Structures
1.
Amino acid sequence: MSRWRFLLVFAAAMVLLWIAPLVLPLGDYTHDVVGLTFMFMAAALAWNWLGGYVGQISFGHAAMFGVGGFVAARLMLSSGLPFVVAWLAGGLVAGVFGLLWGHPTLRLRGPYFSIATIGVGEATRLVATYWSDFTGGSSGLSLPLAGNPTKYQLYWYGLYLLGAAVLISYGLRRSRIGLGLAAIKEDVDAAGDVGVNPTLYQDLVLFLSGTMVGICGGFYASYQAFIDPQDMFSFDRSIGLILMAVIGGIGTVLGPVWGAVVFVIIQEFLLATYSELYLGLYGALLILIILFEPLGLTGLVQRVHRLLLRRPATAASSGAPLTADRRPT
Amino acid sequence: MGEVVVLAVSAVLLAGFYAAMAYGLGLIYGVLRIVNLAHGGIIMASAYVTWQLFDRFAVDPFAAIPVVLVLFFILGMGIYLGLVRFLPRGPAGAVQSLLLLFGVWLVIRNVVYLLFTGNEQVIHTAYATSSVRILGGSFSATRFAVFGVAVIALIALHLLLTRTYLGKAIRAVAQNPDSCTLAGINVERVYLLTFGLGTALAGLAGVLASTLFAINPSFGAGELLKSFVIIVLGGLGSILGIALGALVLAFAEVFAVYAVPPYLTTAVGFVLLVVVLVLRPGGLFGQRVLR
């Protein structure tokens, strides 16, 4: 897709989604869930910048989600800052927090980094749970009613978040930085040899990713109007982000958006009735996708597309990751 | 002074369990270059099997070890044959294997949850409260038994890896699978047996864990992290490396009570991991870390 065509489609989609609730008879519940889904989409895209573009699988993104949420909530409680400013501040703190643990650990590759992120996530959750002066401990924090947007209004803020995340996703992939990231994913030493500074690039992406996920945390805090550390920092939250990206197509530009749709549908409709099955369902999904269609929905669509057009695959076809994720063994 | 000695003994006892726990992860990683993210889940599952054997059939946890070893050896081979075998090798396979085995972990957790609910379970053996007095401290007899089993298991493994054809084949494949094919070693079969062996070792760790800790379906995340810290600390070169890595971690955790509140001991392993990886990427003792 050319740049102009992408921007045109993007702008049209944003306008349509912006006016949709005004003209369509959406129920309150659907309206709210769609708004929340926008936030999940943005967070999943942000996870994908690190997990997909660079290939550094993070199991600890809940840490930034929680930090962003709690900083935003604290700011709104103590200083009465407008909520958007509080979200942004929370996001920035989350991004810096990401850099703090990411700068040393991002030199590690593959499983080393991933396991370290499990440690980050767990350690952050423990500290947050016990640091009750800041997080309210196990009883959590309630946000002030005044100054906090309603769920109805949050639909549009969710849409703005999603729009920003999509633009960054596209920009990162199409820019020089995107090429650098793809080079790092393929071979970190070779990337260094051709003048890509892996430390700088990866730090930058983690900062961006952490900031966006932190802002999403702030959004979530406003959405729920009540947050507690066990929920914000839970391992399940990190798992959720991974799943959305994997379902949609890890490393693709827009895959996580579709993945988030599937994830929310599963969560809201299937798991409302079979709540005791959710981990197993997520696990089974992961296994099936990795075994049969490592690029998730995006891979599936491409496969169908190829079958229909009877055309051989090209790496440059829209949305495909720059690096071939499946090679002949 | 007395307190320090008591803590040191405590750390050594803990290190025995840690070494047994880490070896399964290290073995699979060294040979297949795959981090078995289901490691913690397998430890948890085997702890539940041990609990069930004790609860229903009154089988002593330590007597259950042979059964669990066979069971989890078969389970490991099943996971390899059914799932891991199909992953591509190389960097793309590394990301996929992480996600795949993570999925396996989630499924195990859910199955255990469905079967036994999320409640904590404890094994109360007749000797659970008996203690041993040594060096001015009082230690539970179970901890000594766990230490003994762990040491025996590590020695048995060492003998297996150095004295048998299979062991030599495993070590050869860890060094260079391509040359092994040339030398007539069935590499695919070595992978299969290694995965089985590594899983059986995780099973053993689960038996030991069930005698020490209360278990629930989310048990195992910390064990996975600690196992990984140990193989990074000690390198994959030898039993000695693993034992030293386990000792360092155990001492750091036990003596951390002087510096940090108790709920943060989990974080000690993580901090150690980051510090070592940043300062000494080759492992604490200068051994080559297989990557």
2.
Amino acid sequence: MTRFSEKEQRVAAFALLGFGAAAAIPLVDDGYYLSLSVNIAMYAVLCTAWTLFSGPTHYISLATAAFFGIGTYTVGLGIDSLPFPLLLAIAGIAAAILAGLVGVATLRLSGVYFVIFTLGLAELVRQVVTWLQTNFTTSVGLYVFTDMTEKHIFWMLLALAAIVYATGWLINRSRLGFAMRIIGNDETVARHVGIDVARSKVILFMVSGAFIGITGAILAPRFAYVEPPSAFNPVISFQVVIMALLGGTGRLWAPLLGVIPFTILFDRISSSFPNHTSLLIGVAFMAIVYFLPRGVIGLIEDFRKPRAGKAGTVAPVPEAAE
Amino acid sequence: MDILITGTVLGGTYALIALGLTLQYGVARIMNLANGENLVLACFCAFWLYTAASINPVIGIAIIAPAAFLLNWLIYVYAMKPLVDRAKNRGQLEVDSILATFGLMFIMQGVMLLVFGGSYFSYNFLSEPVRILGANYGLNRIVALGAAVVIAAGLYLFLYRTRYGTAIRAVSVSPSSASLVAINVPRASAFAFALGGALTAAGGALLSTFYTFNSSMGVIFTMKALIIVIMGGVGDVRGAVLAALLLGLAETAVASLIDPGLTLAATYTLFIIVLLIRPQGIFGRQTA
Amino acid sequence: MTGRALLSVETVRKAFGGLVAINDVDFTVKQSELIGLIGPNGSGKTTMMNLISGALKPTSGTIRLDGEAISGLPAHKISQRGVARTFQLVRILPSLSAVENVIAGAVFGHIRAWGDDAYREAEVLLERVGLGGRGSAPTGSMTYIDQKRLELARALASNPRLLLLDEWLAGLNPSELKIGIELIRDLREDGRTIIMVEHVMDAIRSLCDRCVVMSSGVKIADGSVHDVLNQPEVVTAYLGADDA
């Protein structure tokens, strides 16, 4: 399995072209469109990283804001003493450790426990960080002064996106990816063919969390002033879920189909009607559940092969025999 | 002592909210993440009834609870039932209902933000102090606790002493077997969902008498209710009440002894302990 | 064939709350032996299979594979030690192709094949169970017998030391049954160690060296098929006391 198939070569060529074109954006514009592109690139990385884990496992993670905030804070704390690339690595490791702890505690249990736990995680970390800062340091916020501009952030995000896609692609070809497909079909069978189901899920969650943490770290210079409510903003978690599901979680690149339109829409709505963003998020959730349960990619696939019949992608619920 | 009483009052209100959620999840099989918004909406209704029509919030429950019952019935029939019918298995229903109720949560929150704005609300109701064992407490808190006890006891009697209550408990154990003994499962599910909403709303009306509330605090309450439900064991009334009191006490203890900013950390610590030691809940039975 | 015990079940008990599903059962399976585990419905056969494969943990007692205790280990560890199984209600992986279903058995378990080797092996196994050339077929629309064949191929893919067949022949029509019995006989000829839970008595008679009979969680007989099926306790267990 070392050679690339013709299809893979085509996809790779297409991806290279896409990245090349995207990398040229800062040369054309450095105002509104660049800023929008940074948002799109950020959500592209976040959603793809989210999908790495939530796509095959069907667990809905709302921990994005927690990992993201940890990344941002790592940079905020260390920017004066350590080089930026090292901070990115530390951010990834810290987020992965948190993901590992959460995973060990919750991933052996059903999906509901996991959703609830991750729902509060960002808030929990925010409370703890605020408490630590008010009690053991002088101020609640942190200044991040760098000479990095939007375009550096954008290029870093693009590079990270490339790494995320490459990782996703490698995982899909690996034993871990194959194990996840089996787990997605039937966990009982997975266990009985020798897969350590809990461990596989935790590893994948850690990989996903690490990328989200690094994204948070890359964006820290953009905030300039880092404080708990902005770094651990729970809305990010929900936006990521919406965009990823809107695009679809069956393919590595599918979330992108949700990221681009929703980021633009959200940007427009929040600048013209700032009080309506909650409504927008609510309506988006409803629309996905009732009209687009398989995302935009599902629509495209239905359109391509209208007579192929519905693929049963959801695993049967395991039931104890006798 | 102070912690004990304040914690019990808080726990009593949590209990109503959690009972609402446990009915919705245990019987109707819908994990309703918009439950906290339901609560906040009830807070606003109680506030409005009291300030505009000077109706006592405890009496106001008689208006708010039936209204919430109706609202939640409609939500179940028009929004949740299609998902139940479409789901091929319980796992899919779980994911769908989580996403749909998230949608509902944001929509309700968005509407309340538009109507009431984001600022904090509170009103004065029975705020004169009473002395219990040498310390002062707001009369409103004591009344709220009393009302919560009455409502919870009523629910217990309904579920364990009436025919329809038994039917609902049967659905919570096994919907397929319940339908074999001529229980109308869709109807019982809708009823339980609506009743759960009414209970939560009652909890909200009581909470509003002593708590400052705003449009976007629902999520925190949903989360606490969920944690209580899991701690108590899904569908378990006694477990939910006990877990709610435990949580109320733990939070109050942490808030007054360590730092009010760490209440959620306290909640989570309890949650993790339960997950690691007794994931089936306090009274839950070990399943294979 | 005389040999050492590959599997030994030692005073194993499994209780669900107050209900004792398996009550201090002992038996052994020798290398290359094919034994039938039989008994009326609800006698604890599938529970026993679940205990051996690690889907359930015994309340007390020990299960040893080749002398090493495996009871209490999680299912994936037991699988990695070389125990493979099929399920009472067939469980295929619907979104994977037939050949991927088989490879699934070879990657994580007792042997850890990957890549082209695993693929070639899987094709050979598909051929063997009678699904030759259908490796890329979608599995969701396969007939029942083909799904059962696929599940058997998946179990064999790990080259298991012990194979557990949980009512693998149930639900097959007479001509399919004949094919199924031939397939198992073939495996036995290879010297594979097999425990089969089965209600189809013809299959037990024609295939098994030995039979363990269970009733209400207790082992009531253990011996050659002919002897066991004529024991009065066994007849009573199946037909009820009045008819005996």
